[in-house]
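SEVERITY: medium
COMPONENT: batch folding queue
REPORTER: lab tech (J.R.)

DESCRIPTION
The queue accepted two submissions in a row. Attaching both inputs and their returned structure tokens so the on-call engineer can compare them side by side.

ATTACHMENT 1
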Amino acid sequence: MSQWLGSQNYSHQTQLVGAAIVGGLAAAATIYSLQNLRRNVALGDLKASIPPLSLLKLTDFGGASLRTSTNKEDERNAALAARARRGDYDDELIMEQLARNRVFLTDEGLHKLRQSFVIVVGLGGVGSHATTALARSGVAMIRLIDFDQVTLSSLNRHAVATLADVGIPKVHCVRKRLELVSPWVRFDCRNELFRVEAAPRLLGEWNHELHGGEDRRKPDYVIDCIDNIDSKVALLLYCYQHNIKVVSSMGAGCKSDPSKICLGDISNSTDDPLSRSTRRRLRVLGVKEGIQVVFSSEKPGPGKAELLPLSEEEFAKGQVGELGILPDFRVRILPVLGTMPAMFGYAAANHVICAVAGYPLEYRVGDKSREKLYAGILAALQTMEAKLVKSITGNIPLGLRIPLNLEDVAYLIEEVFRGKSVISGLTTRLALVRWERPSDGYQVEPTWEKEGQIFVRLGLGELVCVTKEEAQRHEREVLRGNKSPEDLYAQEVLHLVSKRQQEELSFSRFR
């Protein structure tokens, strides 16, 4: 009896298990069918989004030439931008948007900016931020030149690109996004690679169809944001030979120190492989100076990012030149901290904005960390002052010092005199020297002498920056001789010295 009951119970359990299995298979089949249906719907949507082959055209550089996929919002924004460019946009709204620039640059400066034409070559991390600053600041006409598309790896440093922009040309990505900010700005998009044979057309006058081809304005400035050495040199040489103002961004890769970013003549750019290569190639072509560049004086060091050599596996694939999309373009991923290209781009745009608007621009020259130079200048000034005291008293008081330190020297050289001789404008073999012979002679400060401090009476505003040779002549003919600065120097030099002395007085309030 018990065996029969057990068999009946077993049969019941078997039925339950079987029902569960059948139910599970049915559920799995349903889920699979639903997923397959969703997959087919998504695939259909994707295929529908791909333009017909008749519309899909590739550039000579392998990129898509389509502007971008559009939706209703994009169409509305494009329509607003088109109306704004035709003048159907209240100028009071524009002036309100540019109010902060207006009070900074003055009405005259802002007017110049709103009439300007700037070309940006290269719209990666540097160029996209530079263009953003130009459009937000009121530049009226901007030509964008870049052959590349937005990629996922672009998003760590690009100013305006989003996931939705991946795969579209950078020129149209930047245009579309910035039209949302400043719809009145006219963009001339050139989805192509800069090359020397196309330079007259790419860097030529503005004759875009949006202006009806009537405005033949020449570019006020070119911002070079190219990261390929051959194209960069060709661009800079063309601008130099055709008197086109240009500011060039050197390498932001492997850099991380914002305080080391400098802007100055290319002859002063240091500690950057791209800058060094560009400088050498331009020298061979006869260009030694006269090109403004943004560069970093940051030096490499242990633990810092660096460009690693290609692996043996890459070399095994064939000639290195065949690995890139285009000839001579890099085939390695350059280590880039996303913040640094932005600062390079904004530095370049800042230079253009101020230069076009007529705002004063004077940059510190060379490396910002020149302690050895400052120490040498301080020691030479100490020696000169001791000799001048001796010429009056007949001896040098024991422990005689001057009331300056290295920070004071750096302040005078870099901040007040911009790293240049006030007489000749030279930037090498610099020295500090008194400008005028003191009316009460060269003597120890009596107040400090009572306290046991033997200091020469000397104020920062009494010193000027000159070269060593100029300092020797000045000491001989002015400080020891009978001549005054007015007897020795041209009126322009005297005016510049007076200007720098006034600036030192205003600067000293904030030290």
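ATTACHMENT 2
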Amino acid sequence: MLKGSCLCGAIRFETMSPPKGVSMCHCSQCRKQSGGVWSSAYVPERDLHIEGEVNWFTSSETAKRGSCPTCGSFLFWKANDENTISFSLGAADGPTGLTLEKHIFVADKGDYYDITDGVPQSA
């Protein structure tokens, strides 16, 4: 389906089902961790094959974030009460063939840019 990796290649991942929920997250946590907007999609957790040792960070009471302990690439986001896992589209190897579906947490977006692409937005 879709393959990706961190910057140094220590972590590789592959989806076993078509990704869904293509979004750009504008929340303050994603902005701080990624340095900007974080683009992601999700698959059922059982359908994401990960090679390498992911460093999991509990970022809130409801979710954790996965990154590479070597290069620091922010790769995964996982809600505690869901059976899906989001992965970074920026870490995808080659074209994804996906289309942006939504912008999320736009109330937290940076004041240095506007969202003008016409894609649905949620606060």
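NOTES FROM REPORTER
The first strand starts at residue 3 and ends at 5.
No errors were logged for either attachment.
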